[in-house]
């Protein structure tokens, strides 16, 4: 029989039956996406394959015993009805990756158009335009990358996009989400999405995450958000505010969680419906504003018991512009660090205090150490996540060279990073 990508097939092996849609596969293999959401791969020369539903004309390849088979990329026609215009900006990461069978490692190779070809259901949601901004793993992102990406997002909005999707590696996606949140006041949805497992690995989450992201991109949530699996099952995705989200697990599909806030909402994968939980900005409530500028010479320092204060000298003496300290509990460091905090602020370096606890709000007015830190010029980060505080500091120092103005901006809630009520 003949098969191609998108066909629905039944595979029988050793008395067990598997059904699903054919996915991109290497020669001599067939990979299918099953109803459970898991992928299954087989050698084609030792299974029985029955075509259940064809996804168009098969123009290349066959399946005859151990003969070579080739998969065919499809030209997916655009829908006839008028749909919202959504731009997909690809930066790389696992959602745009596949296995390099030479090394066995995951490599970023897919473009935005490859994602559309691999997930044809997307074409039912919007009229998509694909654009590759970079093809890197997310640990290679930096402040220059954030600004280049932000410019591309703004260009697409100015060109008439009703929403923008950014495909991104998950490891540093929270940093990029925060950077876009501070740089862009958006009148349309800007959605970051990734996957924990590549398309040709078992239990890939790329298709569901992409479809849910597309639904948010055509919704009335005119904010920067991150859309990822809400549970380990394929039932819903969560919509996280870009300044309140954190990756909390190395490999689980539901690794991303909103911290010190409920998610903006969820996307039901079966019904395609969005349910919201908190207030959010809607289209038309604000015009497009783009404020680029990032100061890269900022640092996030984690305090640990016994660590010497000379680490602050390292950054002060090398001309860093600002520091975020990740303190203990309510936001504390050793009393030995306080003179160095004063040295930094005397040198016109803002110092923001956050907490390693993540959940909850810091308060440096309870104990003497905290009060002394404030007297030394430290700024309370409230319930801002340490990573978000770092990006905020970089952005603020990219906007102004005035120390007092920077302190005032860093103390304000600029993009939902500070919750107005306390969480205990």
UniProtKB/TrEMBL annotation:
| Span of domain Asparaginase/glutaminase C-terminal | 299-407
InterPro entries linked to this entry: AsnA_fam, Asp/glu_Ase-like_sf, Asparaginase/glutaminase-like, Asparaginase/glutaminase_AS1, Asparaginase/glutaminase_AS2, Asparaginase_C, GatD, GatD_N
Kindly list the residue ranges recorded as spanning the membrane. Answer: none
Q: Where is the active site?
A: 94, 170, 171, 247
In this chain the GatD N-terminal domain maps to: 3-52
Identify the Gene3D superfamilies for this entry.
2.30.30.520, 3.40.50.40, L-asparaginase, N-terminal domain
What stretch or stretches form a coiled coil here? none
PROSITE patterns (alphabetical): ASN_GLN_ASE_1, ASN_GLN_ASE_2, ASN_GLN_ASE_3
Q: What UniProt keywords are attached to this protein's entry?
A: ATP-binding, Ligase, Nucleotide-binding, Protein biosynthesis, Transferase
Q: Biological process GO annotation list?
A: amino acid metabolic process; regulation of translational fidelity; translation
EC number(s) per entry: 6.3.5.-
Q: Which family does the UniProt entry place this protein in?
A: Belongs to the asparaginase 1 family. GatD subfamily.
Question: In UniProt terms, what function does this protein have?
Answer: Allows the formation of correctly charged Gln-tRNA(Gln) through the transamidation of misacylated Glu-tRNA(Gln) in organisms which lack glutaminyl-tRNA synthetase. The reaction takes place in the presence of glutamine and ATP through an activated gamma-phospho-Glu-tRNA(Gln). The GatDE system is specific for glutamate and does not act on aspartate.
Query: What is the protein name given in its UniProt record?
Result: Glutamyl-tRNA(Gln) amidotransferase subunit D
Gene that this sequence comes from:
gatD
């Amino acid at each position: 029989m003949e098969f191609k990508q998108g066909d629905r097939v039944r595979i029988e092996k050793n008395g067990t039956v598997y059904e699903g849609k054919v996915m991109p596969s290497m020669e001599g293999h067939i990979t299918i996406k099953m109803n459970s959401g898991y992928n299954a791969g087989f050698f084609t020369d030792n299974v029985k394959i029955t075509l259940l539903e064809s996804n168009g004309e098969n123009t290349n390849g066959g399946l005859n015993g151990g003969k070579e088979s080739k998969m065919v990329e499809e030209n997916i026609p655009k829908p006839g009805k008028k749909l919202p215009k959504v731009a997909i900006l690809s930066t790389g990461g696992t959602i745009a990756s596949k296995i390099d069978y030479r090394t066995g490692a995951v490599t970023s190779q897919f473009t935005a158009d490859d994602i559309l070809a691999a997930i044809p259901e997307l074409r039912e949601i919007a009229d998509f335009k694909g654009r590759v901004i970079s093809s890197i793993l997310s640990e290679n992102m930096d402040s220059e990358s954030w600004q280049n990406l932000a410019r591309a997002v703004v260009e697409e909005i100015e060109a008439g996009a009703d929403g923008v999707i950014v495909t991104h590696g998950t490891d540093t996606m929270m940093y990029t989400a925060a950077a876009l949140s501070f740089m862009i006041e958006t009148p349309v949805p800007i959605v970051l999405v990734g996957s924990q497992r590549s398309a040709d690995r078992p239990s890939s989450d790329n298709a569901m995450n992409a479809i849910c992201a597309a639904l948010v991109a055509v919704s009335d949530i005119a904010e920067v958000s991150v859309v990822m699996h809400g549970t380990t099952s394929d039932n819903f995705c969560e919509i996280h505010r870009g300044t309140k989200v954190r990756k909390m697990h190395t490999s689980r599909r539901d690794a991303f969680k909103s911290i010190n806030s409920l998610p903006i909402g969820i996307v039901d994968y079966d019904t395609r419906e969005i349910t919201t939980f908190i207030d959010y900005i809607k289209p038309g409530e604000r015009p497009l504003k783009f404020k680029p500028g990032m100061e890269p010479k900022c640092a996030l320092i984690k305090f640990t018991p016994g660590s010497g204060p000379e680490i602050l000298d390292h950054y002060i003496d090398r001309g860093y512009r600002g520091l975020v300290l990740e303190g203990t509990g309510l936001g504390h460091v050793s009393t030995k660090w306080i003179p160095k905090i004063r040295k930094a602020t005397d040198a016109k370096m803002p110092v923001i205090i956050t907490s390693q606890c993540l959940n909850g709000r810091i308060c440096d007015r309870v104990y003497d150490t905290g009060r002394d830190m404030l007297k030394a010029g430290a700024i309370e980060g409230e319930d801002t996540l340490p990573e978000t505080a770092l990006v905020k500091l970089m952005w603020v120092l990219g906007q102004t060279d005035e120390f007092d103005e920077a302190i005032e901006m860093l103390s304000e809630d600029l993009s939902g990073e500070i919750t107005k009520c306390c969480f205990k």
